[in-house]
Design goal:
By secondary structure, the protein is mostly helical. About 70% of the residues lie in helices and about 5% in strands. The protein contains 13 helices and two strands, in the order H-E-E-H-H-H-H-H-H-H-H-H-H-H-H. Helix 12 (about 250-255) packs antiparallel against helix 13. The longest helix has about 35 residues, at about 5-40. It is globular and about 75 Å long. The protein starts with a helix and ends in a 9-residue tail after the last helix.
Length: about 300
């Protein structure tokens, strides 16, 4: 069947409209992805453009790299903080959905960090954690307690980063939870109250199941963001002290762009794929188990 001239022009116009994003994806997405896969199995010199296939050598190096596993462990601790962040966020949202004065102001205050640059916020927290002049140690001094090396103590530094991450992540989750809580069907809550259910039972058996899709979304995005976090860790401590706050993405960056690691791009590429697969696995597990705790209203 032959197409009319008008139909051909319509098709051509459509293809012209989708051409820029498709070409952009191919040039800046698909081609770099395919190239990174090839490089991860090779030895590649970006200056001489020589490519030598080495098989799984780069991946084998990663599995024997103590620093890489240290960074994975640090992210494991950070992911444990995701659960704390979810509990704190929904707690704040529940408080801010009560009919009391000032809730609008407090919602704005909790959301304010989301509007600020992560660089600016991290620099402020770096001052807060300062050993000599930081506000936290100043408060501890007034209470007659000793100073804490929030960023210099290897046992405390990672927990300091987790605390900052929780503080930064509350705002966006709070907004979504407030909206979800307000959309919980009132007839469910009223019926439960008539049946004698107290506030805690209404919370755990009605409110939380009803907002579980929101919890699912926040959990997925927070896990991905936490596992790929980079800016905060680089600015705050650059992975120190003694790699206590080193994350996989920061280690990959240092490996690829630092003279300390001889600009080892190929090894950094292999680690990137391992971290990417790790994130995909974690997210896959969450999706797989979501049917047991995420409830959608049909």
């Amino acid at each position: 069947m032959k197409l009319s001239t008008a139909r051909k022009k319509e098709w051509l116009t459509g293809y012209l409209f989708i051409a820029p994003p498709v070409l952009g994806f191919l040039l800046f997405g698909m081609i770099p992805i395919v190239f990174s896969v090839v490089v991860s199995f090779s030895e590649y010199d970006f200056f001489t453009k020589q490519l030598n296939f080495v098989g799984l050598a780069n991946y084998a190096e990663a599995f024997s790299d103590r620093i890489f596993f240290k960074s994975i462990g640090n992210i494991g601790l950070a992911l444990m903080g995701v659960g704390v962040q979810l509990v704190v966020t929904i707690g704040v949202a529940l408080l801010l959905t009560t009919e009391v004065k000032g809730t609008v102001l407090f919602r704005a205050l909790f959301f304010l960090p989301v509007l600020c640059s992560s660089v600016a916020v991290t620099l402020v927290w770096k001052w807060v954690y300062n050993y000599d002049f930081g506000i936290l140690n100043s408060l501890l001094g007034k209470l007659g307690m000793g100073k804490v090396g929030w960023l210099t103590n290897t046992h405390v530094a990672m927990f300091s980063m987790i605390l900052q991450g929780i503080w930064m992540g509350i705002g966006s989750g709070m907004v979504m939870y407030v909206s979800a809580i307000k959309n919980v069907p009132s007839q469910y809550l009223e019926a439960a109250k008539i049946d004698g259910a107290n506030a805690f039972k209404r919370l755990f058996h009605i409110t939380l199941p009803c907002v579980s899709p929101t919890t699912f979304y926040i959990l997925i995005t927070t896990v991905i963001g936490t596992a790929s976090d980079f800016v905060r860790y680089q600015l705050m401590n650059d992975g120190g002290p003694d790699n206590a706050t080193l994350t996989p993405v920061l280690y990959i960056y240092q490996t690829a762009f630092s003279s300390d690691y001889n600009y080892n791009y190929v090894y950094a590429t292999a680690m990137s794929w391992l971290v990417g697969l790790m994130i995909i696995f974690i997210v896959g597990v969450i999706f797989k188990t979501s049917s047991k705790w995420v409830h959608y209203n049909d």
